[in-house]
Amino acid sequence: MVLKTEHYVINVGPQHPSTHGVFRLRLTLDGEVIVDVEPIFGYLHRGMEKIAEGRNYTKNIPLTDRLDYLSSMINNQAYCMAVENLLNITVPERAQYIRVIMAELQRMASHLAGIGFFMNDIGAFSTPLLYMFREREKIVELFDMTCGQRLNYNYMRFGGVSMDLPDEFLPALNKLLAGMPGFIEEYDKLISTNEIVLVRAKGVGILPKELAINASAAGPVLRGSDVKWDLRKNQPYSIYDRFEFDIPTGEIGDTYDRYAVRLEEIRQSTRILKQAVKQLPAGETMAKVSKLIRPPAGETYAAVEGPKGELGFFVVADGTENPYRWHVRAPSLINLTVLKEMLLGWKVADLMAIFGSIDIVMGEVDR
């Protein structure tokens, strides 16, 4: 006998432990099955892009820390690259290497948090997360000893970085890099073949390759769908063309593939860091740049491969000390646009596994 059912609507969020910030989902359900999804944004909107147009270029660097606050170093780098394009600045070699070191450490820290919270989302409460935070804490300590901050670093400047590495930095980094292969193997054994993880993630929330490309998805969400695209390889910036590393991809674009790509990217970041430390030259860490800059009128777009995907800054200069337009291409926002297609047909219990596998930070979604 076929039961007659009626659709009903529930709200998830905006305050919910698994929404990774203030984010609301309006779900239409048939029993436990999701038949429609309406994502509702804007709870964290701060008018950041408009605020940036009223501040000088240098004062906008701390604003970038507050986009994806798990990726502050990389946010700094992308914005500084955009302004350096306008000013036609050449960044000293040592500063370029330091930027790569900070960016790859930040990628590892972000992926460790992403995997840890994803495991929380599928029910493995706290234990895997604490494993991930064990190594993430060591990375945060490296940032702390370099610039005195543990979250919003405000470290990079137009033309380089605000200060050189302290003497204790490289010994501590080398110790971390020596241990990382063993830690990654530990994560792999703990998670990758776990029976519950496989049931909750394999074949769940598939993002087809064509849809991922058409939606301009980026980062592990795109590469999990078997699209080998990474700006560090495909549009090399800074000095990434000097390093050997691989671009991991998934097979079918399911929740498991997105997890597996992030884990492998931690391994590849370790490879890059070892090469960068070996090649790190002596020399200046800042080009000669005025503290109050007035770039000539023009516009530029600079993008980097952030932990969540392509992070870009579009900046329009009008010859004054403030940008005329300041716009951010935020990967978390772009990746969220495919959430509906990934959720339709799945049950409520799968919602947080699929949503968690996207790995968003609402600070850069709402801005």
Automatic annotation (TrEMBL):
InterPro entries: NADH_Q_OxRdtase_suD, NADH_UbQ_OxRdtase_49kDa_CS, NDH1_su_D/H, NiFe-Hase_large. It is found in: Cell membrane. GO terms for cellular component: plasma membrane. Keywords: Cell membrane, Membrane, NAD, Oxidoreductase, Quinone, Translocase, Transport, Ubiquinone. Pfam families: Complex1_49kDa (PF00346). It comes from the Bacteria. It catalyses: a quinone + NADH + 5 H(+)(in) = a quinol + NAD(+) + 4 H(+)(out). It is a peripheral membrane protein. Its EC number is 7.1.1.-. It is an enzyme of class 7 (translocase). Transmembrane segments: none annotated. Residues 121-292 form the NADH-quinone oxidoreductase subunit D domain. Gene3D superfamilies: Cytochrome-c3 Hydrogenase, chain B. GO terms for molecular function: NAD binding; NADH dehydrogenase (quinone) (non-electrogenic) activity; quinone binding. NDH-1 shuttles electrons from NADH, via FMN and iron-sulfur (Fe-S) centers, to quinones in the respiratory chain. The immediate electron acceptor for the enzyme in this species is believed to be ubiquinone. Couples the redox reaction to proton translocation (for every two electrons transferred, four hydrogen ions are translocated across the cytoplasmic membrane), and thus conserves the redox energy in a proton gradient. Belongs to the complex I 49 kDa subunit family. HAMAP family: NDH1_NuoD. NDH-1 is composed of 14 different subunits. Subunits NuoB, C, D, E, F, and G constitute the peripheral sector of the complex. This is NADH-quinone oxidoreductase subunit D. It comes from Dehalogenimonas sp. 4OHTPN.
